Amino acid sequence: MTESEEIESLINFSKMECVCHFMKQYPNYSSLPDNAHYYLPNLASLLSTDYTPTAEDILHLRVPTASVNEIYFSFNSTKIRLIDVGGQRAYRKKWIHCFEGVSAVLFVASMAAYDQSIPQQGKRSHALQSFYLRLANHCCEPFQKDIFSNKLSNHPLEDYVPGYRGSSNKDASEFLKEYFLKRKSKKDANRMIYSHFTCATDTKNVEFVFRAVCDIVLHKNIESNGIQ
Q1: Residue 183 marked as a ligand binder
Q2: Is 142 annotated as a binding residue?
């Protein structure tokens, strides 16, 4: 089969009635990548010979972090060194080597994973993990709020989280946020925690998060210089 024939087969597959029905009937199927509903209907343009990725195409891309990556960039005149670490338990022992001189920890938790299990631990819920880090100030970022809201109608949070008694999407969101924030110990009472709901494709909200990070860095610099 030639490359053009393979492309044609993929496009025809995406248009099959049974495939379209499945995508509509099971929008949050656990084995289906979150971005499948974006990419599959757009296969024809994505696979065209003159295709150039748009900003939206790139934002929907998901590549799991499999190692420790350092990224340097500037945001509103603030120089930021971002250390991206793999989230799987196998990588967590490597984290300790990355925290020297760290001003803030950006903890990203997927709200939409409340009904999924951790590959390394069977049935334990993703969303109810807590690996609270006490090494620096924190910016807790529960994300995928759009997918989370869509899931709740077919997968009620109370079926997976004992003790939850809410009745709306807002109640569910606030419940999970408070779950994470309660992990803050008394001795960490003076540490700042910024908590935000967002989704990876919401560029304005992500910009707001980085403003919070810059605020943390500013406060740390003031403290280190003895300025009250």
Answers
A1: no
A2: no
Q: Name the phi and psi angles at 87, rounded to 5.
A: -85, -15
Q: Is the model's pLDDT at 40 over the cut of 80?
A: yes
pLDDT exceeds 70 at position 85: yes
> Of 52, 84, 86, 81, which is closest to residue 66 (Cα–Cα)?
86
206 is in an annotated binding site: no
Quote the strand ranges of 31-157, DSSP E: 69-75, 78-84, 104-110, 137-143
Residue 61 is labelled as binding a ligand: yes
Residue ranges of domains in the chain, CATH in brackets: 3-59 (no CATH), 69-224 (3.40.50.300)
Beta-strand pair 193-195/137-143: parallel
The reply, when asked if residue 84 is annotated as ligand binding, is yes
218 is in an annotated binding site: no
Is 25 annotated to bind ligand? no
Q: Is 63 annotated as a binding residue?
A: yes
Q: For residues 77 and 181, give the distance between their C-alpha atoms in angstroms, rounded to a whole number.
A: 30
Q: Give the integer Cα–Cα distance in Å for 192 and 216.
A: 8
**pTM of the predicted model, to two decimals?**
0.63
Per-residue pLDDT of 136-183, as tens digits, reads 455 655 556 667 877 787 788 888 887 888 888 889 888 888 877 777
Rounded Cα–Cα distance for residues 178 and 62 (Å): 27
Find out whether 64 is annotated in a ligand binding site: yes
**108 carries a ligand binding annotation:** no
Q: What is the pLDDT of residue 164?
A: 87
87 is in an annotated binding site: yes
Report the SS3 class of residue 5: helix
